[in-house]
Structures are given as structure tokens and as C-alpha cells.
Automatic annotation (TrEMBL):
Entry GO MF terms: lyase activity
Cofactor(s), names only, from the UniProt record: Mg(2+)
Matches recorded under SUPFAM superfamilies: Phosphoenolpyruvate/pyruvate domain
Signal peptide: 1-25
Location of the HpcH/HpaI aldolase/citrate lyase domain: 21-185
Keywords tagged on the record: Lyase, Magnesium, Metal-binding, Signal
Matching InterPro entries: Aldolase/citrate-lyase_domain, Citrate_lyase_beta/mcl1/mcl2, Pyrv/PenolPyrv_kinase-like_dom, Pyrv_kinase-like_dom_sf
Protein's UniProt keywords contain Lyase: yes
Superkingdom, taxonomy of origin: Bacteria
Name of the protein this chain belongs to: CoA ester lyase
């Protein structure tokens, strides 16, 4: 019997997903806890989490899971590797595939070539992990097949020598945010903060949100709920939006040039609160 997928998370559109949980495909025992967690989206990871000698077995493991009732995203190996074509050939027939995350995306055509090897309409999440990928982010965001951008912080830091200080990574995060807007995509997904839970993870989410990013990768199921809270409208924002929308519905007069932007923000907060089930949380 297939594991129970968190029903709330399963019903949420991936464009609104806040927490993206990477579940290692090195062992199928990782799949069920990930699917039952609070993660908005679950990604079976066949790339970083699996050594070269285990790639074929991991691929078989994932296809079997997605053919026997499980549904998930899958992180596939980069287009420059020997595994990319086999990954896509196998996944293209898997009924439970929700989309793929393409590792090491550096050029727009890499996304398009990936999408062309999958069933029509399968979304591709472009994981940008290098200086070249960041500089090409606008083109990647506008490429046919690109669903959303994500930031591979660890590999980007290795590529550039940048520290994990928010200021050192501000340009890259901003580039992904602006590129997503230009490409008319949902907000980008920030990289994980490994080994961090609780208040420290909430602090990391504040950085993510302040940059304009709307999702975050995580490596532990217990991190998902914190990320969901950290990347949702706050209680005070929801109250403010509710009061403004009530006043508007009652015929509030436009007072100055800031009114319409504030109204739009209130409508967005209200919509997100509905989608995330926050009104009575």
C-alpha cells in the first residue's frame, strides 16, 4: 500500500510551495517519512544524495515508487553528466512524477531539452548553482519549460568562494528574484540551511523572504513546518489585510497614491492566507 501523502500539502499548487524537502533516493526508506511530512513539495533526490555507483539503482527505486502510488518531484542529474538522458527516459513513463528539478542549470536550452524528453507539460524546476547560471538566470527563467528557479547555495559558494553571509549571497538571490519576475514565474526557491531548526531556521527564512524569495529547500522533514511558517504571511499581516479589505468593501475612499498598492498587497496576503489555510490557524 502506498504511503499516505500529507493531504494539505498534496492539494497545494507547486507554484505556492514554500518548503521543498529533498529525500535521498539512496534508500527507499526515506520516501514515506518525506511524503507524510509537512513539506509542501517532496523531491526524491537522485543527484547529490547518490554516489556514482548507486545511480542506476536509485533511478530504479524512484521509478518503482512513482509507479506504485507515490507522487513526488525528482531531482535529476545535470545535463552534462552521463546520467541525465537515462534519468529522463525512465521518469518519462512514471505516472507519479509531479515534475523534475534539473541540477546544475546554466543555460536556457538545458531546461528546454529536459522538458522535451518528458511528458508534455511536465514542469521543470531549474536549480541554479554556479556563477554562470546566476548570470544567465533571466534567460533561464524565460526558457520554454521553466516552471520555477531554485538556488543551489552550496555549489554556488564552492564555485565563487562566497561565504554564507547574507550580504555575500545577496546579489545571487536578487538576480534569481528579478529573473523570475521578468520570466513571469512564481518566486524563486532559496537553498537549504543544513542542520538548522527552530529559531535559527526562522531567522534564515526571514533572509529568504526579505530578498523576495517564496520557497526554501530543506533536507530534514522536521524543518518543513518551520519553513512553512517562516514563509507565510504573519498573523499581524493577515489582520491588517483583513481590516483593509473590509474597509474597502465598505466603500473606503482612495486617500493617496499609496492606497492602490496597499490594496493589491492586502489582496495578495488574503489569497495566500486562503491557500495556506491560515485564517483560523
Amino acid at each position: 500500500m502506498a504511503p499516505f501523502r500529507n493531504s494539505r500539502a498534496a492539494a497545494l499548487p507547486a507554484k505556492l510551495s514554500r518548503s521543498w524537502l529533498l529525500a535521498s533516493a539512496a534508500d527507499e526508506a526515506h520516501f514515506a517519512p518525506a511524503l507524510a511530512s509537512e513539506a509542501d513539495s517532496v523531491v526524491f533526490d537522485m543527484e547529490d544524495a547518490v554516489p556514482a555507483e548507486g545511480k542506476a539503482e536509485a533511478r530504479e527505486r524512484v521509478v518503482e515508487a512513482l509507479s506504485t502510488g507515490m507522487t513526488a518531484w525528482v531531482r535529476v542529474n545535470g545535463i552534462e553528466t552521463d546520467y541525465w538522458a537515462d534519468d529522463l527516459a525512465a521518469l518519462s513513463k512514471a505516472p507519479g512524477l509531479r515534475g523534475v528539478m534539473l541540477a546544475m542549470t546554466e543555460k536556457p536550452e538545458q531546461v528546454t531539452h529536459t522538458a522535451m524528453r518528458l511528458q508534455a507539460g511536465t514542469p521543470v524546476l531549474a536549480l541554479v548553482e554556479s556563477a554562470l547560471g546566476i548570470e544567465n538566470a533571466t534567460a533561464i527563467a524565460s526558457a520554454p519549460g521553466t516552471f520555477r528557479l531554485a538556488f543551489g547555495v552550496g555549489d554556488f559558494r564552492r564555485d565563487t568562494g562566497a561565504s554564507d553571509d547574507p550580504m555575500a549571497l545577496a546579489y545571487a538571490r536578487s538576480k534569481l528574484v528579478v529573473a523570475s519576475r521578468v520570466g513571469q514565474l512564481p518566486g524563486p526557491i532559496d537553498g537549504p540551511t543544513p542542520g538548522t531548526l527552530g529559531e535559527k531556521l526562522l531567522d534564515a527564512c526571514k533572509v529568504t523572504a526579505s530578498m523576495g524569495m517564496t520557497g526554501k529547500l530543506c533536507l530534514m522533514p522536521e524543518a518543513a513546518d518551520t519553513i512553512n511558517k517562516g514563509l507565510s504571511p504573519s498573523e499581524s499581516e493577515i489582520v491588517w489585510a483583513h481590516e483593509l479589505l473590509e474597509a474597502h468593501a465598505a466603500g473606503a475612499v482612495v486617500g493617496d497614491g499609496s492606497y492602490l498598492p496597499r490594496l493589491a498587497r492586502a489582496q495578495k496576503i488574503s489569497s495566500l492566507a486562503d491557500s495556506y489555510g491560515l485564517w483560523n490557524a
